[in-house]
């Protein structure tokens, strides 16, 4: 997935924004991802993708990444 592809389609939140937000804010639970430009609070379709990025960050992956963009 390209870092500038949108993960949250409702609020146009890119993977790059989410990853940088996680590095800066260090969320303790996946639900805190919504604090990044309201990601996941619209139709909630992207919540599994947000959770996957969060899980990668918790596992210590240097650059969390989704294998395919939600748009695909």
How does this model look, in words?
The protein is mostly helical and 72 residues long. The chain contains two helices and two strands; from the N terminus they run ββαα. It has a two-stranded antiparallel sheet. A hairpin with a 4-residue loop joins strand 1 (6-8) and strand 2. The chain is globular, with a radius of gyration of 11 Å.
Brief digest:
The chain is mainly alpha-helical. The protein contains 2 helices and 2 strands; from the N terminus they run E-E-H-H.
Fraction of residues in helix: 25-40%
Strand order of the largest sheet: 1-2
Largest sheet entry: 2 strands, antiparallel
The secondary-structure element order is EEHH
Distance between the termini: 10 Å
Shape: globular
Regions with little confidence, pLDDT below 50 for 5+ residues:
none
Radius of gyration: 11 Å
How much strand content do the residues show? 5-15%
Mean pLDDT comes to 93
Question: Would you report the number of β strands?
Answer: 2
Structural class: mainly alpha
Helix tally equals: 2
